[in-house]
């Protein structure tokens, strides 16, 4: 099968962050996500690039207006009255006609802020709260029974874009540079069209009637992996493996992880021989991998740069690392050797490309089928037999040289590892000595601190003793002061009484004198009267 090519309708060369929609929900039927395990929005795309920098600007704009992380959808509603506010949850749970009527009266600026707020949530960089928010929104949308192709026809365009973005988890539907017809958005929402904007094929793609395409809603066999149900835009690569029979595609990583790449017999291998095969999960039939890898490299390798060629050789090494037959092992060793040479700068990408293509030609000549076709059942002449024996010997010598080169490479690698280990041991020893010195220094510092602490404790005891003595002295002085105060009060009372007594005596004397004077005055007055 030829390498995976770009979709015919694809015009975008980027990938999107998405949350896989439920692949088992019937179209136009009630949606439910019970018992469903979804991935994080940031982990849903198989490969990830970024949209233009407007995403970052919108994210900053939303982040600056955010005041409550628990209500992320309210962060875009700021300048309207409370009666006109529409949140993402309102769109997800309210009737289509009611929300559509409200959105007709809203400004374009507010609708754009609403979309940018959802883009920030779908981006998933805000942590668990944003992931929880998108899961809540998806649950609200997928549990509704009224979201059919008929009811969505009356939806506002921004409302429809938000519903599709929530249902698929793809923020590209909200991007200002992406404009899709309303009918296309409705078909994507009800799983009648591929959600990959670069594909957009009607589903099931190519009118496929296999069980996978019939039962997995939203699955497109032209751009999605049959195992993880994700898509990306990698083409002309060994990252994707195509089935020779049903033309469904699978990520190489997914196939390796799920054991879909293994040893087995095929129609191309001889009796009793095994080779590395890929078993398609869609049709459960096998495809031979060596020829597929050869076709990919012959069609695409001349256009790869050093980084791409290294990455593709790594994919081939991972595919054939468990190979148990001669050609697969030789291909694995060759890929490892070329990667090592390109890594060390011994070989550039063009030379490595010519080398691997020539190696594929050698493998084709050494294949059992080519040898069988060459014999044709005829008798071999002695000279030809000698030639073939010489070829076999030469091949054995080449194999021995390859094994020797591999052992030498492994020896060099082991030697480098040993030297690195020795350097590491030296570094660790030096670090241990430094740590020991540091430990001794810390120990001395601790002892010094302990001495200071003991001294301070002794000073504290001494000050406490002096404080106790001062307290007792204060109590004694207080008793003396109290006694003196009482005595002073008694003396004052005694002197006061004496003074009052003196005053009383003086007043008494004064009164007596006054009485005497009055009596003498009266006696004088009475004597004068008698004389007169």
From TrEMBL:
One of its GO terms (molecular function) is zinc ion binding. It is found in: Nucleus. It holds the Pfam family Oberon_cc. InterPro entries: OBE1-like_PHD, OBERON, Oberon-like_PHD, Oberon_CC, Znf_PHD. Its main location: nucleus. Residues 1-52 are annotated as: Disordered. Residues 224-284 form the Zinc finger PHD-type domain. Residues 404-521 form a coiled coil. GO terms for cellular component: nucleus. This is OBERON-like protein. It comes from Cucurbita maxima (Pumpkin).
């Amino acid at each position: 099968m030829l390498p995976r090519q770009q979709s015919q309708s694809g015009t975008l060369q980027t990938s999107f962050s998405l949350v896989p929609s439920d692949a088992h929900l019937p179209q136009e039927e009630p949606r439910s996500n019970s018992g469903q395990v979804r991935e994080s929005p940031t982990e849903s795309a198989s490969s990830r690039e970024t949209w233009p920098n407007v995403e970052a600007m919108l994210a900053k704009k939303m982040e600056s207006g955010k005041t409550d992380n628990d209500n992320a959808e309210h962060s875009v509603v700021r300048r309207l009255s409370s009666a006109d506010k529409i949140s993402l949850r309102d769109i997800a749970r309210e009737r289509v006609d009611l929300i559509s009527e409200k959105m007709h009266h809203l400004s374009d600026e507010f609708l754009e802020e609403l979309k940018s707020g959802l883009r920030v949530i779908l981006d998933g960089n805000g942590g668990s709260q944003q992931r929880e928010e998108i899961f809540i929104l998806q649950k609200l949308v997928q549990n509704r029974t009224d979201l059919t192709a008929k009811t969505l026809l009356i939806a506002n365009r921004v409302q429809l874009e938000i519903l599709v973005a929530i249902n698929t988890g793809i923020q590209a539907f909200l991007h200002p540079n992406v404009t899709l017809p309303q009918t296309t958005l409705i078909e994507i929402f009800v799983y009648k069209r591929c959600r990959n904007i670069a594909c957009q094929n009607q589903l099931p793609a190519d009118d496929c009637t296999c069980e996978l395409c019939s039962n997995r809603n939203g699955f497109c066999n032209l751009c999605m992996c049959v195992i993880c149900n994700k898509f990306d835009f990698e083409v002309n690569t060994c990252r994707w493996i195509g089935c020779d029979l049903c033309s469904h595609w699978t990520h190489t990583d997914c196939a390796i992880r799920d054991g879909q790449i293994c040893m087995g017999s095929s129609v191309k291998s001889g009796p009793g021989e095994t080779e590395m095969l890929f078993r398609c999960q869609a049709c459960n039939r096998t495809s031979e991998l060596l020829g597929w890898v050869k076709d990919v490299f012959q069609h695409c390798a001349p256009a790869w740069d050093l980084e791409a060629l290294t990455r593709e050789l790594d994919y081939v090494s991972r595919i054939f690392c468990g190979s148990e037959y001669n050609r697969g092992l030789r291909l694995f060793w060759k890929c490892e050797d070329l990667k090592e040479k390109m890594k060390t700068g011994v070989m550039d990408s063009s030379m490595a490309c010519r080398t691997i293509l020539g190696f594929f030609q050698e493998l084709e000549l050494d294949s059992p089928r080519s040898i069988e076709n060459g014999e044709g059942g005829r008798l071999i002449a002695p000279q030809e037999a000698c030639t073939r024996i010489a070829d076999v010997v030469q091949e054995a010598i080449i194999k021995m040289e390859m094994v020797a080169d591999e052992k030498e490479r492994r020896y060099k690698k082991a030697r480098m590892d040993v030297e690195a280990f020795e350097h590491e041991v030296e570094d660790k020893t030096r670090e241990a000595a430094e740590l020991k010195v540091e430990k001794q220094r810390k120990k001395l510092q601790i002892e010094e601190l302990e001495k200071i602490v003991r001294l301070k404790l002794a000073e504290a005891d001494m000050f406490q003793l002096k404080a106790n003595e001062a307290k007792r002295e204060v109590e004694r002085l207080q008793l003396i002061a109290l006694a003196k105060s009482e005595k002073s009060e008694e003396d004052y009372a005694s002197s006061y009484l004496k003074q009052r007594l003196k005053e009383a005596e003086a007043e008494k004397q004064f009164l007596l004198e006054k009485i005497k004077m009055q009596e003498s005055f009266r006696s004088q007055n009475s004597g004068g009267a008698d004389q007169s």
